[in-house]
Amino acid sequence: MQENTFSKPTALPQLPKSPTGIEGLDEITEGGLPKGRPTLICGSAGCGKTLMGIEFLVRGIQEFDEPGVLMAFEETGEELAANVTSLGFDLKDLQERKLLRVDHVHVDRSEIEETGEYDLEGLFIRLGYAIDSIGAKRVVLDTIESLFSGFPNQAVLRSEIRRLFRWLKDRGVTTVITAERGDGSLTRQGLEEYVSDCVILLDNRVIDQITTRRLRIVKYRGSTHGTNEYPYLITEDGISVLPVTSLRLEHEVSNNIVSSGIPALDDMFGLRGFYQGSSVLITGTAGTAKTTLAAAFAGKICQKGQRCLFFAFEESPQQLTRNMASVGIDLHHHVAEGRLRIEASRPTLNGLEQHLVTLHRLVKEFKPDAVVIDPITNLITVGNISEVRSMLTRLIDFLKVNGITALFTALVSGRGLQQEMTDEGVSSLVDTWISVRDLEGVGERNRGLSILKSRGMAHSNQVREFIVTERGIELLDVVLGPTGIVTGASRLTQQLEEHAQTLAAQQEAERRDRELERRRRMLEANIANLRTEFESVEEELRQISTHEQTRNEALSSGKQRIASANPPAPKAPNPGETGK
C-alpha cells in the first residue's frame, strides 16, 4: 500500500504595509496602511483629517526615509506649514531638502467654464510630475470634495473617482485621501469608501460638555485590524491613538520588593512589601487616611533615591506637602531635590484621554520609578464607568510594560460588602488591594486596615487598627476580647483588664514565692535541729563505745597479768617411759 505523504503548507505572503509612525495607529492596523494602495480618512470638520495626513507624510520622511507629496485643494502651502508648526513639523525645511513636495491646486467653480467632458487628466499630469520630482513613496490628497464641487454630472464624477484611485494604485504610491462626512454615508459622493482599500472614520463628539475624538477602522482589505472605536488626541507631539486591545499581557515581571513606607504594613505581606512594577489599590471611605498612605509610599520611594510622580486631583501641591508634614512625611524636601513631582489639577480640566496622554508624556520626561494617583474616583466626573475603566486598564498596562510601580487610591461608599466594590471596577485589575475602613464603636470612630488580596505572595488576614500621629501612621497590635478584636476605648479597657490580671498574677506568684521561701527556711531549721540532735546522740554513742572498749581492754590486760603471775605446773613423766 502506498503511503500518503502530506507536505507542510507554505506560508502565504502577507499584505505589505507602510507604517504611519502615528502612536497607536500602527498597532490597531497591525503594521500600518496598505502599501501602494489608497486609504480614505473621512470625518466631520475639526476631527483632524488634514493633520493625520500631514503627520503620515512627516513621519514617513523622518522615520522611514520615504519622501512624500501633499496636494491640497483648500489651504495653501504657507497656511499648512503655519498650522503644523506648533506640532514640531517644519514643512518648509522638508521642502528645501527635496523630501516633501507641497502643491496647492485652486479649484473654483465660478472660474471654470465647462466646454466638454470633465476629467482629471490635468491632475494626473501634475501629481505625476510632483511624485517623480522627489521620488515620492507617499501621497496625501486633501480634501477630495473640493476637486469635484459644483459639477452636476454625478456619473462622470463617479467614473473619474474610480479612475483616480486606479491611477494611484498603478503608480504604486501609498496614498491617504481625506474626505468630508456625508449625510447617510461616509463621504459626500458615497463612492470613495467603496473603492478605497482602507477606510478610517474620525469622529468628534461632545458628551456632557466633554469633547472626545474617536477613530474607527471601517474596513481594511486583505488584513485583520482592530474593530472597536479608539479615542485619540491631538497634542503638541501630533496624533496619539491609545487603544485597549493593542496592549497585550506580555510584559516582564520583577522579583524585587518595594516598601509601602510603613514597616508594620510591610510585615503584613509575606515578602515585606509590593512587587516592583505591580499595581496597588487603596480603597476606603472619606477620612480613612488613603492620601496619607499614598504619601508614605511616595516618601519611601524618594528616600531610596528613586523618582515618584504624584497626581493629586483634590489638593494643590502646597496643601498636600503642608498636610503631610503635620504627620511626619516630608514631601517638600523630596520635591526640592527633584525626586518627587506633584501634578495637581481638577479632573474636569481635561478629558480622560487627555489625562492619559499627559501621564504618558510625563512618564517619558520624568522617568519615574513609581506613580501615585490620588484619587481615581474623581475621573468619573469626566466619563462614565466603562470609559474610566477602559482608561485605567490602558494606564495600568502602560505602567506595567515600563516596570513602574503604581499606587491608586479610590473612594468607596456604603458599608459591608459595598465597601469592597469600587465605582471604577478596577479592583480585579490590580495586583494588591488594601482596604481601609471605619471601625465604629460606642461613641467613637477608629480606623482599620486589611489586605484583601496580594497576587504572588502570602499576606495577613487580620484587620489591623491604625492611628495617624505626628510620626506618621502606626499600626497597633491586635487585641482580642471576649467577642473578637477590640478597638479604641474597648482596646484600652481590655488592655487595662489584661494589665490588672497580669499584675494580680504577678503578685500571686510573688506570694507563692515568699511562702515557699518561708517553708524552705522552716524545713532548713528543722533539718538543722535534727542534725544537732543526731550529733548529740552520735557523740553519746561514741563515748559509750569508747568506755566499753576501755573496759574490755582493762579486763584483757588484768587476765594477762594474772596468767603471768601463776605459771602452769610441770608435767609428770609417763611410767612406761622410765628405764628405757
TrEMBL record:
Alphabetical list of Pfam families matching this protein: ATPase (PF06745)
Entry keyword Hydrolase: yes
Keyword Kinase carried by entry: yes
Keywords (A to Z) from UniProt: Hydrolase, Kinase, Phosphoprotein, Repeat, Transferase
Enzyme Commission designation: 2.7.11.1
UniProt-annotated stretches for the region Disordered: 1-31, 541-580
Molecular function GO labels: protein serine/threonine kinase activity
Domain KaiC: 16-255, 256-489
Record's compositionally biased regions (Polar residues): 543-559
Stated name of the protein: non-specific serine/threonine protein kinase
Organism ancestry: Bacteria, Pseudomonadati, Bacteroidota, Cytophagia, Cytophagales
Encoding gene, per UniProt annotation: kaiC
